[in-house]
Amino acid sequence: MARSMTAFARVDQCDERGELAWELRSVNHRYLEVFARLPEEFRVLEPRVRERVNQRLGRGKVECVLRYRPVAGVTERIQLNETYLDQLMAVMEQVRGLLPSAREPDLLQVLSWPEVVLTTTADLTPVQEQAMALLEKALDELVATREREGARLAELIRTRCDQLEVQVEKARQRMPQVIEAIRERLRARLEEVVQNLDEERLEQEMVLLAQRLDVDEEMDRLATHLQEVKRVLDLDEPVGRRLDFLMQELNREANTLGSKSADAETTAISVEMKVLIEQMREQVQNIE
């Protein structure tokens, strides 16, 4: 089914380790480009994030933003260096023996002494794995949104295809009348200037003219392309580039019809076709 490239998804999770939140945004782009904005503690995940997005999406510019608010003490822990503190206290006892009048040290001063208190970084592997699991949920939501929007775009394109098919049929029905009207105008003009009109020569000229004005081939190709558009819209894969090519082919046939137009009604049909094709092309630009 057709998928839109424009979508947004946000999922979050909160537990004893803190709060994780993913925001995914995708917009139109010719190819797939992934931008990851991760907190410093999660930078190691960037290759995995890119790989996973590449596996789930085909086209679009995708921005992946991860936010993390840890609970106090989760990312860093403070520990007392008891071995070093024992050594420090022993030295202080020696100083007191040498300088009995020395003032007792303040507790905060002791704690601020280098290496008395150690800060250790907690193992964030479990939180990082949580973030990757949460990314899957965000991608599920993003893909679902793209599919819903894609279904809406596909319906709009099908409607335009139906309208184009009506114009194709009008052009088919109009051409015999166009040829006959040209025949009568040509006959009238020739009779004004030629007394003995050669009917055989007139018919030969009319056959050549009809061949130049014949648009059956173009109408057949238009009908075939329209059926292909409808078929492609139902494929379960990225179809945007294929649809874009079909829009070019449809426009080519509509232009040919316009160049062969011999009356105002046929010209109007050609213009209406181009309008419908342009409307479809604009929608196709949003499809993955």
What tags apply to this protein structure?
single chain; 288 residues; Ribosomal Protein S5, domain 2; Butyryl-CoA Dehydrogenase, subunit A, domain 3; 3 domains; four-stranded mixed beta sheet; 8 helices
Description:
This protein has 288 residues and is an alpha+beta fold. It folds into 3 domains: 7-72 and 124-145, Ribosomal Protein S5, domain 2, CATH 3.30.230; 76-121, no CATH class; 150-284, Up-down Bundle (Butyryl-CoA Dehydrogenase, subunit A, domain 3), CATH 1.20.140. Helix content is 62%, strand content 16%. The termini are close together.
Present the secondary structure layout.
Elements lengths: L6 E9 L2 E10 L4 E6 L8 H11 L3 E11 L5 E5 L1 H17 L8 H6 L4 E5 L3 H69 L5 H15 L2 H18 L6 H21 L3 H21 L4
Parallel strand pairs: 3-4
Antiparallel strand pairs: 1-2, 2-4, 5-6
Short précis:
The chain is of the alpha+beta class and 288 residues long. 62% of the residues lie in helices and 16% in strands. The chain has a four-stranded mixed beta sheet, with helices on one face. It has a two-stranded antiparallel ribbon with strand order 5-6.
